User: Fold this.
Amino acid sequence: MTSAEDVSHNILRVIGDGSIGTGFFIQKELCVTCHHVISKMNAIKVEYKGKSYDAEWVPEYSDMDKDIAILRVKNCEANPLSCARGALPGLEVSGFGFESKLLEWLPEGTPFDGRLGTTVSHYTEKAQEIKQDKPWKKKPVVSVEVYKMDCDITGQGLSGSPVCQTASWQVVGMFAALSERQPPVGFVIPIENILDTLKKEIPTAIQPASHGKSSYELITEANTLVDEKQVEKAIEVYEMVANDPNYLYAWYNKGVVLGNLGRSQEAIECYDKAIQIDPNYADAWYNKGLILGRLGRGDEEIACYDKTIQIDPNYADAWNNKGAALGKLGREDEEIACYDKTIQINPNYFVALYNKARVYAKRKENENALESLAKAISINKDSIQWAQSDESFSGLRNEKKFMSLMT
Assistant:
């Protein structure tokens, strides 16, 4: 099985004429990086363990429009990295790259972690005028499907870095760019886009399954069926890829659909499969908790939220729902503490403010109840309609402040 060390010890610096990026071998002698990394270089070189190697741009396998560059590098001792057959939404990911301002991380590179978004996005980048005295010195408009990635990356030079599924350390994509907004969002080119450029060179890596479609295409098809309310067909399609251990998202999505159909035990089994593949899949733990809550299994529900929070301490939904679950068990002080944590993470989380108001109202702590309710209403007016029919506030209905809030 591939490890973090296998990845960190086999990445390369792509350098030339003041530019810097990262690359990795996708097979022997073939290195992949982002095209924009090499687009201004007069000569392309890669460095590995202190040695410099000449690199030859391979146009027949590269795709400038998708920001993919394939380089042929001979006699380099770096090993090709293990690649998954496709990237999937929601994966916990990790990687290494050579951030230009942190060269003390040489030779292993700067580590980073993140999570792929739940949908594919379209990434575009404007063309640039470059003196075209070399065939690779072009910068056309980039138009490529990517996953957004919530990440802890802040510097330059990581373009071309391998993005790996944390659970298996198989490459699921290539880091392409970082947004200028805060907190930063990365853009990841899915590995299948890169493999598509290499069909002639490594056919075994991209052979479709017996049904003739890639798992990525099947997941997309199933998601579309869910949107069209054809949930039974969607489940069948998820099952076509669910047995592949790389595709925990198929198990997760199947669990979501089954849960929405009220097939709770089957949904739990799907989430357990996803967790078996990636024990740190916070969303699977969270959704399993939701199902257990519906079944009245409060202690188990809370245990799932605790695991979610252990993985991601800023998972506001898990804190809020843990509070609600504790409330059902009569543990009101702990319940309020969870709502406070939710609000600390996201001050605009009006549901937590509303829930907190309900607890105070039931405890006849009227001032605290009205204060929390007022804050919830200031963020979202839906709180008014909820409070008007909520028996928790029956003792406040004749209070002037409460009546004022309802108008």
Observations:
- Residues 325-407 form a domain with the Serine Threonine Protein Phosphatase 5, Tetratricopeptide repeat fold (CATH 1.25.40.10).
